[in-house]
Amino acid sequence: MCPRRRCAVAWTFILLAGASGGCYDAREVNNFLLKHRTPVSGAEYRVLPPDVLLVTSQRVAEINNLQTQIRPDGRINLPLLGELCVAGSTPAEIETAIREAAQQYYDEVDANVQVLGYNSQRFFVFGQVARPGPYPWTGHDTLLDALAQAQPTFLAWPERISVVRAPPPQEGGVKAEINPEDYAHSGIRPEDPDRPRHQLRINMMAMVETGDLSNNIMLLPNDVIYVRPNPLAAVGLAIQSLLFPIRPAAETIVTPNVIRDDLE
Predict the structure, then answer these.
(1) How many CB atoms are located within 10 Å of the residue 151 CB?
(2) Helix 231-243, helix 3-19: angle, nearest 10
(3) Relative to the CA of 31, which of 82, 90, 143, 248 has its CA 20 to 30 Å away?
(4) pTM, full prediction
């Protein structure tokens, strides 16, 4: 048996052995659940590029019913008032900034800001789903909402859904001291005890079949949902990976016959 084949067989047994493991951690649940159950995540929505805002005002006609998209530099350009830096601000904070700018031209001012396009804040779904990728975060997104949109496939393991929540900063990377040898082996930085990562394992079928939605957590921006393959699918995917180099060669042999048949 060639080394590659032996390696694949070994990994198949490892996958089967690991498939039966991975218990639910009741303590980890508390890092994801809200202290008081509410219909929203509790996190303030702070706008970032390329969110779209709607500005209305009864007293400042120049900005009434104005739609504007936040530029890559984090600014918006308002008629009469000019440019305002709004990236990282809440709608209420933007309203205050607009009123302060408008006071240079009007004695009485008002402003209302709404988010029309939630384009910047996202959560992610990967694994055995029909629609993997990023999804817009609105502040009222639950785990079941995300899974219903992503649609787990028949290869999924619904009893072992993982949700990963990383500490900030979650975007742009962070400079830290790492061991080059460890990083070269795993590609993962060591966990900072002061900034722990949290991983929650959820039994989706238990929620669906029993109606117990107490673990239907509210998602936060940059949460990662991973739908792992079921044990049988994991073995099948490992075999498919093993046969991948063989398939292109077989297809090149078949292709000329297909072309010849078409010509006849």
Answers:
(1) 13
(2) 170
(3) 90
(4) 0.68
Distance CA 248, CA 14 (A): 27
DSSP string, 72-105: TTSEEEETTTEEEE-TT--HHHHHHHHHHHHTTT
Q: Is 47 part of a structural domain of the chain? A: no
Tens of pLDDT, residues 22-59: 576 766 666 676 655 555 555 678 999 999 999 999 99
Q: Determine, yes or no, domain membership for 128.
A: yes
Which residue's structure tokens are 């001012």?
109
Cα 154 to the chain's mean position, in Å? Answer: 22
Characterize the bridge pairing of strands 122-127 and 224-229. parallel
Q: Which residues contact 207 (CB under 8 A, 6 or more apart)?
A: 144, 213, 215, 216
Quote the tokens at residue 30: 């508390």
Is the domain of 158 the same as that of 36?
A: yes
Residue 235 confidence (pLDDT): 86
